[in-house]
Design a protein that fits this description.
2 domains; 208 residues; single chain; seven-stranded antiparallel sheet; Dna Ligase, domain 1
């Protein structure tokens, strides 16, 4: 089992209409500057490599980059740790995790929960055996302890549940149809009242 490279994983997500934030994979400072210009500042830079599974362990994420000078400095730091860098747009919203894997007992299983700090601290998530319908995906979200947080407590606007449900269903369909895929991890998925986008994603396949 191995990690599918960024470009191949991106194609798989596009195939199943799973939206991701604007992201460019670059290996040179010039490419990074062009990517940031296309996206528009501020941007995030993230270390990328097939051997990098947890960027936080190597301090491989730098956000709040507002200009070319900051980008050049940050790019040099990350390239000392990786063979490439992801340049990403900055998205604000609530963090969610969506995952799926082939369980030895139950077969394809889909997970949705609160992401970010909630993932490890609260462990607030819901599980279903795939395939997952839109109705089931909505029920999964309502089962979360943090549902009110997503629905807009204390006067906040609710996230775009329609888009979020669609992504959960798409992840379920992906795992059902793509037999070589072992595991999918979208974390975080950033959701606000207008859109829901996967910011970080990993796809593991058999025999890679």
């Amino acid at each position: 089992m191995g990690l599918i490279n960024f470009q191949s994983a991106e194609k798989i997500l596009f195939k199943y209409k799973i939206p991701i934030c604007r992201t460019f994979f670059v290996v040179s400072e010039k490419e990074a500057l062009i990517a940031a210009e296309k996206i528009g500042y501020p941007v995030f830079l993230k270390a990328y490599g097939k051997d990098i599974l947890h960027r936080t362990d190597i301090k491989g994420v730098i956000g709040g980059i507002n200009n070319e000078k900051e980008l050049k400095s940050s790019f040099k730091k990350l390239m000392k740790k990786a063979k490439g860098v992801l340049v990403q747009e900055t998205i604000f919203g609530k963090e969610i995790i969506i995952g799926a894997k082939r369980d030895s007992q139950f077969g394809p299983v889909v997970l949705v929960g609160l992401g970010g700090i909630f993932t490890e601290i609260i462990k607030d998530f819901s599980l279903r055996v795939a395939p997952v319908s839109a109705v089931e995906a909505r029920l999964m979200l309502k089962e979360l302890q943090g549902y009110d947080y997503l629905a807009g407590s204390r006067g906040e606007k609710p996230i775009n549940f329609k888009s979020l449900v669609s992504i959960v269903v798409s992840v379920s369909n992906l795992l059902i149809k793509e037999k070589e895929i072992e595991e999918i991890d979208l974390n975080p998925v950033i959701a606000n009242e207008k859109k829901v986008l996967a910011v970080d994603f990993k796809i593991l396949s058999y025999g890679k």
